């Protein structure tokens, strides 16, 4: 009477395990891309809210930089804080139309001085677009 496993049983178990891992890999990689894009969107919305709140009484601007994807909060001509929008260890591309940077300005009342701004984030097959109104509200599409 044998209490061990045979080589055939071991190989069969490894084949089943490899098949299951192969089926699970694509959804996991898509999940990672979705998390990175959602994090970049949340970081942009946070930087936008911070810029609006700091602008009250003195005015402020949010400067979006294409390379590397980041946003700088500028108050009184001085950069107060810069937020990376690429996620930790991930690659998220940001597009907002022509140029390497885009400035979103708010006056001393916290009202934007622009028609609207649209920023697109993408990673893998995941894409989100943030539309910022002149009132500083961000809508995610």
Structure description:
It is a single chain. By secondary structure, the chain is of the alpha+beta class. The protein has a single domain (about 5-140), classed as minor pseudopilin epsh fold (3-Layer(bab) Sandwich). It is about 35% helix and about 35% strand. The chain contains one helix and eight strands; from the N terminus they run αββββββββ. It has one helix spanning about 5-55; strands at about 60-65, 70-75, 80-85, 95, 100-105, 115-125, 125-135, 140. The strands form two sheets. It has a four-stranded antiparallel β-sheet, covered by helices on one side. It starts with 6 loop residues before the first helix and ends with a strand. The mean pLDDT is about 85.
SSE inventory with pairings:
Blueprint: H1 7-55, E1 60-65, E2 70-75, E3 78-84, E4 93-95, E5 101-106, E6 116-123, E7 126-133, E8 138-140
Antiparallel strand pairs: 1-2, 1-5, 2-3, 4-6, 6-7, 7-8
Brief synopsis:
The chain has 141 residues and is of the alpha+beta class.
CATH topology value: minor pseudopilin epsh fold
Report on the biggest sheet. Answer: 4 strands, antiparallel
Task: Give the N-to-C terminal Cα separation.
Answer: 65 Å
Strand content: 25-35%
Kindly name the structural category.
alpha+beta
* CATH class placement: Alpha Beta
Unreliable stretches (pLDDT < 50, length at least 5) are none
Arithmetic mean pLDDT: 83
CATH superfamily: minor pseudopilin epsh domain
Q: What is the number of strand segments?
A: 8
CATH A-level architecture: 3-Layer(bab) Sandwich
Q: Count of helical segments?
A: 1
Radius of gyration: 23 Å
* Overall helicity: 25-40%
Order of helices and strands: HEEEEEEEE
What sort of overall outline do the alpha carbons produce when their principal axes are compared? rod-shaped
* Spatial order of strands in the largest sheet: 3-2-1-5
The total domain count is 1
């Amino acid at each position: 009477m044998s209490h061990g496993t045979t080589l055939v049983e071991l190989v069969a178990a490894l084949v089943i395990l490899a098949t299951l891992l192969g089926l699970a890999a694509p959804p996991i990689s898509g999940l990672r891309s979705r998390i990175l894009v959602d994090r970049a969107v949340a970081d942009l919305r946070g930087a936008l809210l911070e810029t609006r709140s700091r602008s009250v009484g003195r005015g402020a601007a949010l400067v979006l930089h294409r390379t590397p994807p980041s946003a700088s909060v500028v108050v009184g001509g001085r950069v107060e804080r810069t937020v990376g929008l690429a996620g930790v260890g991930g690659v998220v591309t940001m597009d907002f139309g022509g140029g390497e940077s885009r400035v979103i300005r708010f006056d001393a009342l916290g009202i934007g001085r622009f028609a609207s701004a649209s920023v697109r984030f993408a990673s893998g097959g995941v894409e989100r677009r943030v539309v910022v109104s002149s009132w500083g509200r961000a809508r995610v599409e």
